[in-house]
Amino acid sequence: MKIVRALAGAAIVAAGLSGAANYGLGAWLHADWPGTPLRSETFETRGFPFALGFDATGIALRDGRREATLTAAEVRAPVWDPLALTIRPRLPATLSDGTLSATLNAGTASGELAFGYGLPDLPLRRAAGRVEQAQIALASAPEMPFTAASAEAALARQPAGDYAAHLRLSDIALPEGAADRLLPGADLGDRIASVSADATVGFAHPPALHGPHPELARVHLATLSIDWGGRGLSASGDLSADAAGLAEGQIALTTRDWQSWFDVARRAGLLGRGEHLVESLLRSMAEASPDGSVSIPVSFHKGRMSVGPVPTGYMLRLAQRQ
């Protein structure tokens, strides 16, 4: 009997604590206090006592420089890990980062945000999102949506402090004629079969709920693969940001479709006055290759890009240093 009473007492205490946490989490999100990065216009608690959660509208996340907003979502967390949030947006959803606004519709959509318990910052443990049968329409061009069979991205903290990142996109359809308008003459078409990337990224300050804006410090790109209009490109390498936030390092690019990707780089303004030398170099490499493929280093020093030995004048900044 004593055991039963003890278990009942423990259950009551646990329920009380989880209820308080549930209420507190919702109230914290509903607040708009200075320095609070998350807020919502309305919330209604759900799931107690089996889970912490609420339905919220007008959700906003601020990082000190801009604000990202989501019209409405269901937010849930297990009672044993209240800072591991599962987020299911109500569809269609309006997304905005303060500059661009878009409407998302999808067969399914879900996200995850998990924070550590290190005070006072609450460091990011992992972030992930996945959508199936997605359609995204920019507010500036609602009649020209982008679609994708699936899209997923994830960022997870590693024991050493950096983050493992991955990205997978499949069967992307751009608005009709978009590729030709953006990159005239590149002849890539409006369908991207796949994009995949795996990397390890480090930040000057680890991402945290109450921390400063995370600035990229280094990237180890294990692999990047793109299949656009039947033309493939792969990349790998390492980049870091110098004291001014400019890129240092090297990325190796490999492709059999060098002419198409050269046209992409040229149309995007990446090659500058070096474009003719780069084209000649790539053609010579392809002619000397048994299968016509080329593999060439793209290097950065103080942000300035060179393709092989050819400087292009293009500058890459990885971080905005204060």
Structure report:
The structure is a single chain. With 322 residues, this protein is an alpha+beta fold. The protein has helices spanning 2-30, 178-182, 258-267, 275-288, and strands at residues 38-39, 42-45, 51-62, 67-78, 84-89, 93-96, 101-105, 108-115, 124-138, 146-157, 163-173, 191-203, 216-228, 231-241, 247-255, 294-301, 304-307, 310-315. The protein has a six-stranded antiparallel beta barrel with strand order 4-5-8-9-7-6. A hairpin with a 2-residue loop joins strand 17 (304-307) and strand 18 (310-315). Helix 3 packs antiparallel against helix 4 (275-288). It is globular, with a radius of gyration of 24 Å. Keywords: Signal.
Envelope shape: globular
Number of helices: 4
Major sheet size, sense and barrel closure:
6 strands, antiparallel, barrel
* Oligomeric organization of the protein chains: single chain
Protein name: DUF2125 domain-containing protein
Keywords: Signal
Pfam family, one: DUF2125
Signal peptide: 1-20
Main traits of this protein?
322 residues; alpha+beta; 4 helices; 48% strand; signal; DUF2125; DUF2125 domain-containing protein
Question: Brief description of this entry?
Answer:
By secondary structure, the chain is α+β, with helices and mostly antiparallel strands. It has 4 helices and 18 strands. Helix 3 packs antiparallel against helix 4.
Describe the secondary structure blueprint for this structure:
Blueprint: H1 2-30, E1 38-39, E2 42-45, E3 51-62, E4 67-78, E5 84-89, E6 93-96, E7 101-105, E8 108-115, E9 124-138, E10 146-157, E11 163-173, H2 178-182, E12 191-203, E13 216-228, E14 231-241, E15 247-255, H3 258-267, H4 275-288, E16 294-301, E17 304-307, E18 310-315
Antiparallel strand pairs: 1-3, 2-3, 3-4, 4-5, 4-6, 5-8, 6-7, 7-9, 8-9, 9-10, 10-11, 11-12, 12-13, 13-14, 14-15, 15-16, 16-17, 17-18
Keywords: Signal
Signal peptide: 1-20
Protein name: DUF2125 domain-containing protein
